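Fold it.
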Amino acid sequence: MLQRLFFVFVFVFLLSPGILLAQSPEKLCEAYVPVRAITKGPQSHWFSYYDKYQFDESGRYVLGMEIDFNNRAPQPDDVIRLGMADLEDGDRWIEFAQTSAWSWQQGCMLQWLPGSKSEVIYNSRREGEFISIVQDVFTGEKRVLPRAIYTVSPDGKWGLSVNFARLNDTRPGYGYVGITDPGADQLHPKEDGIFRVDLKTGEAKLIISLDQIAAIPSESPMDGEGKHWFNHLLFNPDGTRFIFLHRWQKQPDGEKGWYTRMFTASTTGEDIFRVADHGMVSHFIWRNSKQILAWSTEPETGNKFYLYTDQTSKKEIIGEEILTRDGHCTYSPDGTWILTDTYPDKERMQNLMLLRPSDSKLVKLGRFYLDKEFKGQTRCDLHGRWSRDGKSVCIDSLHSGKRQMYLLDISSIVK
């Protein structure tokens, strides 16, 4: 144990510019750019998903979540603490809230509210309901909204909401415990689906139902299937449309996995367009307000990263023979680079990398160990997130034995 801690210490604190190589006998990590831990134990810290604002507009404050345990599913009474690391004050941790509505993979949807220098939004649970809270992290002032949100529009005026109890039943690790889904016995209820929430007034309206989307014919079989649900919603950069994944269990018991197809729609739930429908769509990101990068499958070419053009049949392969595995993909703020990661390889190492599509240049940023005890919903994906200026990347990693957040300096690469 002492030897293990020693190598973690070397990796985290004895940094030098240029190539950095730090390994323990267990191969904890290899990093090729300057990196430092911005949170520390004994508590675990993480941010979760990769498609939200973690850095504030100034680049000084980096959001995260804190908890005292590491490797079990959340229980209804488990409360996480929300805070931020102050990069200009020795990475000092500043706690500002708590919540009991969270999951390992997507946290509580904590993120900076677009257009605000001091407000964040996150999900919580009160009086048998999942809600969201907009809070000023400096004054503590807050307002409560009646539904938990999944994604926020770029102007900070609208949120999209799903049934997080149903999501927990169908995809543990993404939904929330503590509330029973009232439509649990229905495969695709008419009263459940995607709700649009006014983040100022709290008014919420069902704009797309599960029953409505289940009625659209699919390339994948639906006969004898299990429950349907929505997952992974995301507004496009100009706030005119959003993506959502429609998923349904292959069998009623859910034991054989699920089918997935990707749709887009206008912000009012109209003009629904089926982007990809061949059984599998995984991680995705908007490149701009018309194009979508997604790891998915196509009949002629199989599983790859495809760049789809919304509301058309256009698609092209990105990073062929280079990005050969699924990963959490995002574009740099200037659109020049793609940041992505991988699930653990045979050595249990998670890889983090950059691809410049213009010339297919691949830059490896590092490899991070994930012990095999962390699997399923308790795994810790790297989930790389860009700073607003595109010069830094923050990840979650368990290579030290505790979930912590790490800041990688990539300014020499993207300059």
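Residues 1-26 have pLDDT under 50 and may be disordered.
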